[in-house]
Specification:
With 130 residues, the chain is an alpha+beta fold. It has helices spanning 2-19, 51-58; strands spanning 35-44, 47-50, 65-68, 73-77, 86-94, 97-102, 105-111, 115-120, 123-129. The protein has an eight-stranded antiparallel barrel with strand order 1-3-4-5-6-7-8-9. The protein starts with a helix and ends with a strand.
Length: 130
Amino acid sequence: MKKQVLTFLMVLAMAISLAACGGGGSSDGGNSPVGTYQMTSMNSDGMEMTAEDLTALFGMDVEITLEIKDDNSFILDLGFLVEDENVSGTWEMDGDSLKLSAEGDSISVTYDGKTIVMDVDGEILTFEKQ
């Protein structure tokens, strides 16, 4: 149980550090990821936990929201960890790849039209479009 909590906190710290970074963005051309996404699961060291599992583990709603806006900006809301904690940056499409950038760092994520999968140093976060 302690390992699950520690692993989850490490994943969130990595997501925060990525989102706390900023770069440029551009238009995507047609396969627009614009919308609001809710984190539905995370996978760490082969152990997958759903948002419901995390809610039960922490005894509170675990809601991480990624909002991708049509002006090529995004907001990652980590409010359940730190009240009113939002991290922002920019996004751009490169073919089928979606790139999120913040404060000079960027990460390419998988986007299939309704799901975003983010791999941060082997920790995998899955977001579903709402």
